[in-house]
Amino acid sequence: MPEVVRNNVIKHLTLSDLLKIAGEGPQQSGLHVFSKSAKKQDGHIRYPFRADAFFIFIVTESSLHIKLNLFDYHLQKNDLLVIGPNTVRQFIGAEDGCSLTGVMFTPDFLMQSSIPKKYYGAFDFFAASGSPHLGLEQAETDELMELIALLHKKNQSAGAAGEYQDEVVRHHFIAFLFELASLHRKYHAEEKIRLTRKEDLVKRFLKLLPEHTRKERSLQFYADHLFVTPKYLSQTVKEVSGKTAGEFIDEMVMMEAKVLLSDLSLSVAQVSEELFFSDQFFFSKFFKNHAGITPSAYRKTF
């Protein structure tokens, strides 16, 4: 298992790391197409992590619960999700028979795909601060599945079945992206118009959390960075999301704490230091208040 990256706390995995953990064989460098079942107790995605790759998948059977940057996504059959690099993701659980089909690729592979500049705007959803989520119709799922299946077939033989196979793979990859862009425009044509100032404030607040939560847990700090009062920030976050700003801060700290506690080479005291608690007692008290058990008891659940 790749080790915790100390300066990020949350585990940061490469595409190669993910493939090794999932037991998937290599395909073309920078691109991997997959179809697999998602089990309730998949240990390799039990803890929060970031990755250096895009992850686009469709739930083809049953349902899946995943958390991205503290937001819960309860995905059903025919739901599609786009997860960008560096998004904090955590697999929560899956119902029996859950199956996923999708594509993982690095930003470098995307940039090397030679998409004409005039079409860059079609893929603006890759830069979205959230994780685009589409509820597809069955016919749309079927069309995407056909493209993914063909891409999978070509990607497995890339570099070994002819002079132009790499180019063939990239063209099939681009076709998949354009189909995805078309669906995104269909379902989110009015997204920018619907985004209110309050929603934009909440998005910016949530973007700050992973960068500063280790050291800064006061509402005042985030309000100052967003040029609003703590009261306005708290009220706005509650109005838009249903949770208070303080709840989001505490959830992010707990996410970081659980990842660190999964590294058994660290003592509980060292974990509390990594998260800038004044001492182990206050960290243990904070953890128990939110998890219902002590950090030491939590470790015994591994």
Commentary on this structure:
The chain has helices spanning 15-22, 107-111, 138-156, 165-188, 191-194, 197-212, 219-226, 230-241, 245-261, 268-274, 280-291, 295-299; strands at residues 11-13, 31-37, 49-51, 54-61, 64-68, 71-75, 79-83, 89-94, 99-105, 133-135. With 302 residues, the chain is α+β, with helices and mostly antiparallel strands. It folds into two domains: 11-193, Regulatory protein AraC (Jelly Rolls); 197-299, Orthogonal Bundle (Arc Repressor Mutant, subunit A). The protein has a five-stranded antiparallel sheet with strand order 2-9-4-7-10. A hairpin with a 2-residue loop joins β5 and β6. α10 (268-274) crosses α11. The longest helix is centred in the middle third of the chain and has 24 residues, at 165-188. It is globular, with a radius of gyration of 21 Å. The two termini are 14 Å apart. The model is unreliable at 1-8 (pLDDT under 50).
Largest sheet: 5 strands, antiparallel
- Residues in helix, %: 40-55%
Q: Shape from CA axes?
A: globular
The CATH topology of the largest domain is given as: Jelly Rolls
Strands, count: 10
Radius of gyration: 21 Å
Q: Strand-residue fraction?
A: 15-25%
Total count of domains? 2
Instruction: State the separation between the terminal residues, measured CA to CA.
Output: 14 Å
Helix segment tally: 12
Major β-sheet strand ordering: 2-9-4-7-10
Give the CATH class of the largest domain. Mainly Beta
Can you tell me the CATH superfamily of the largest domain?
Regulatory protein AraC
Structural class: alpha+beta
CATH architecture of the largest domain: Sandwich
